[in-house]
Structure formats: C-alpha cells, structure tokens
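Entry 14. Structure prediction run on the chain below.
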Amino acid sequence: MPQANGLGELLKQLEAADGKSLPPVEKWSPDFCGDMDLVIKRDGHWYYQGTPIGRKRLVKLFSTVLKKEGDDYFLVTPVEKLGIKVEDAPFLVVRMEHMETEQGAVIVFEDNCDNKVLLTKDNPLWVELDAKTGEPSPYINIRSNLNALIHRNLFYELVAMAQEKTVTGDKHLGVVSAGEFFSLGKI
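Output returned:
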C-alpha cells in the first residue's frame, strides 16, 4: 500500500490533482430552458440523442456543470439550465486505492470523470438494497449532492478487506477510512 504522511496532506494532493476548481454551479440559478436528450446510464456512459458520447473530455466538461435539484439533474451555465436524465447516479467509481497514513487507513475512490474523493464522514459510503432482488448498490458522495455508484468489482474488493463491527446491536461488515467505520451491510 502507498504511504501518505497525513490525512491533510492527502486531501491537498487530491485537490491539486483536480488541476482546477469546478464552476460554482450551486450559485447559478438561470431560467429553465427545457430538456436535453442526454442520458447518463447506470453503467456510467453518457448518451446524447441515443448515441454514446465517445469523447471523455466532453463528458468530463459536461460533468463539471452538472447540478442536482431535488430528484432532477441539470446541466447549467450562468444563463442556461437544461434538464437531463440520470438512470441511477451521475458518476461511476472505477478505481480505488487503500493507503496508510499517520492517522490510519484511508480509501480513495476515482470515478469515470476523474474525480477523486477520500472516503470520510463528509464523503460517506452507503449501500442500498434493491427492494425486489435484495441486490446491494454501494454509493459514495462525490461533491455537493452528486453521488457515484461504486462498480461491482470494487465493491467485492471492499468486502474482501472488510471487518466485522457491532453497530446498535447488529453485526455489520464494513471498512474503515479516515477513522470512520462504513457499513457494507448487516451480517
């Protein structure tokens, strides 16, 4: 496992890796201009008018102006607001790194738009179970109220490194990052 000196240093490295700050979409409140035929699929692929967007740079650009209001998603600029569809979560975690710091173990996730996030109480992980199938879907908060579905193979890696802990009388399997325990489910 890679070694980082401390949690604060790791957070600074992640912010610097971003290269530039994101547009202040939370401050923008333009008029709604209508819906755009853009869909973000559960598998993380973006489709415009039924055709996959093949240019990752374009997807990354769009992702920087993505905003969620209630249950609805929009691409926004200071003067426009276009509705889009998101099947599940707008991002998909595709990489994970487990590291040791002076403060203990941390897990860093990276999504399909190159956003990196440290698993902490501010960016928590949680698992939702499908009501019909019982299938687990793990998520992490990426920024603001935008979340990412964690790819199934990474979920299996999390389960492999998990430990048991009793939480409010129930045994849970979970992982520890930045001093916090994140449940993957009851056992």
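The mean pLDDT is 90.
Filed with the rest of this week's runs.
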